[in-house]
Design a protein that fits this description.
Layout: H1 6-18, H2 23-30, E1 34-38, E2 43-47, H3 50-67, E3 78-82, H4 85-90, H5 92-103, H6 122-133, E4 142-146, H7 152-166, E5 172-176, H8 177-189, H9 193-201, E6 205-209, H10 218-233, E7 237-242, H11 253-259, E8 263-267, H12 272-285, H13 292-301, H14 306-323, H15 329-340, H16 351-362, H17 366-370, H18 376-392, H19 397-402, H20 409-425, H21 427-441
Parallel strand pairs: 2-3, 4-7, 4-8, 5-6, 6-7
Antiparallel strand pairs: 1-2
The protein binds adenosine-5'-diphosphate (ADP) and magnesium ion.
Length: 442
């Protein structure tokens, strides 16, 4: 300990520390501390909340010991007072809330208003909206999964926008799993891991994109899981997106169990009508007028990824700006021909092909699938065939149903729902369905 008067000991500490931490850190954590009283045996500091006290002791205990009187155990002799609640309300937490909102990196276009609903995403969209309207009070966590380019990130940002607008007081953070891991690495490097932990644990809402990137990152998984549990335990809202359902992620059982606690919602490929609606919406917002016929043409050819649809609209938009020509199917076909490669525009899958492949994999006869038998194996094969028909063929349910020996559209819908649920929990069935699908696609 330096032999000097206590007040100047604190002032010296401040001067010393100011050169050691960033301006923002100093401003956020050190500047709010007030020296209240100074005596030879201890000093009294006023802090806005317990986090500041912890921050000070966690990071600078040794340095403090060099400048301040010591207790018999060697700790710096500081008595802390927490600022009265009125002042507390306008001090650190509030400032941080504003700052975080300000920093929140949301894509301005990814709002609920810009999200087109259809049967493939209606359920997920209303779950997302429910969470945004009543964070921490409906489904927690909300786990959204589905293929690439189907709007998962869009919905995550929509939740962020809505909460930012309607729940201004809530502290919210949106991150990709990659940037969460980077944050941890940075924090470890700059020895501010406790601060980072405190930050994440002080959130009201945490939105995490692409959790599949946590797979095979063992060290980070544990930190993630701890944060996750800390938030859930306080009823703080968590929303996660993933390209797979929780059970298919290579993560610890503990992590998977937590993610399944709330609501697991699946997004599928939008049907033809929804794709057309998306095309109309996106093109209008770019000032491009796409006639219905052309919108259908595009929707028929690009069917499994909305991002590709957007790519197509961007090309058309660029083309029509340059050429100032009317878009007709021939022009569109020419412009988009590259994109359609791999999307197999000429190969339309038929119910017959599906039946053939299902019959082979499930070892039943096509006539049995089309028939009425309620025998377990046959009924399952029939439901899988209906599921795949709805997933892979862009016809009305009624038309699909009639190809199954005159079943009704509600039978097809029921089968589709049942198998959609089953493939998420039944590994064998999932593999069988994949096999059928691959046979058809090749
Ligand atoms: P994912 O995260 O599932 O891979 P994104 O959320 O990034 O997909 O979506 C890809 C693009 O498609 C985004 O530009 C998004 O706005 C758009 N998109 C996807 N689904 C819809 C939808 N239902 N309505 C409007 N735009 C959509
Ligand atoms: Mg995404």
């Amino acid at each position: 300990m330096l032999d000097c008067e206590n007040k100047s000991g604190w002032v010296q500490f401040l001067e010393f520390i100011e050169s050691r931490c960033s301006a923002a850190e100093y401003q956020n954590w050190i500047a709010p501390i007030q020296l209240i009283e100074t005596a030879t045996e201890e000093i009294v500091l006023e802090v806005p909340n317990v986090f500041v006290k912890e921050y000070l002791l966690d990071n600078f205990k040794d340095v403090l010991a060099d400048f301040l009187p010591l207790r018999s155990n060697g700790d710096p002799a500081i008595q802390f007072q927490i600022t009265a609640s009125v002042r507390q309300a306008v001090s650190l937490p509030e400032l941080e809330v504003k700052e975080e909102h300000f920093d929140l990196k949301l894509n301005a276009l990814y709002t609920f208003e810009n999200f087109i609903e259809g049967p493939s995403n209606q359920f997920v969209k209303s779950a997302a909206f429910g969470v945004a309207a009543r964070p921490g009070k409906s489904y927690n966590p909300l786990f959204i999964h589905g293929g690439v380019g189907l709007g998962k990130t869009h919905l995550l940002h929509s939740i962020g926008h809505y909460i930012q607008e309607h729940h201004k007081k809530l502290k919210i953070q949106i991150i990709t799993t990659e940037s969460f891991i980077n944050d941890i690495v940075d924090a470890l490097r700059s020895k501010s891991i406790d601060k980072m932990k405190r930050f994440y644990r002080s959130l009201d809402i945490l939105l995490i994109d692409d959790i599949q990137f946590l797979q095979n990152r063992l060290n980070f998984e544990e930190e993630f899981c701890n944060t996750f549990e800390a938030l859930l335990n306080q009823n703080k809202q968590i929303v996660i997106t993933s390209d797979k359902p929780p059970v298919q992620l290579k993560l610890s059982e503990r992590m998977i169990a937590r993610m399944e606690w709330g609501l697991v919602a699946h997004m599928t490929v939008p049907d033809l009508e929804t794709r057309v609606a998306i095309i109309k919406h996106k093109s209008e917002s770019r000032g491009l007028n796409i006639p219905n016929q052309i919108a259908f043409f595009i929707a028929e050819h690009i069917y499994n990824n909305v991002r590709q649809i957007e790519g197509a609209i961007n090309r058309l938009s660029a083309h029509s700006r340059l050429m100032s020509t009317q878009l007709d199917v021939d022009v569109v076909e020419k412009i988009l021909s590259e994109m359609f490669q791999g999307n197999a525009p000429n190969k339309k899958i038929s119910v017959e092909e599906i039946l053939k492949s299902v019959a082979a994999v499930f070892e039943v006869r096509i006539s049995e699938i089309k028939g009425e038998s309620r025998h377990k194996e046959i009924a399952l094969a029939r439901q899988v065939a209906m599921y795949l028909a709805k997933e892979m063929i862009d016809d009305s349910l009624m038309k699909i149903a009639s190809s199954f020996g005159g079943k009704t559209h509600s039978t097809v819908l029921h089968a589709w729902k049942k198998i959609s649920d089953q493939v998420q929990i039944n590994e064998l069935l999932r593999k069988q369905v994949q096999m059928v699908r691959r046979n058809i696609e090749n």
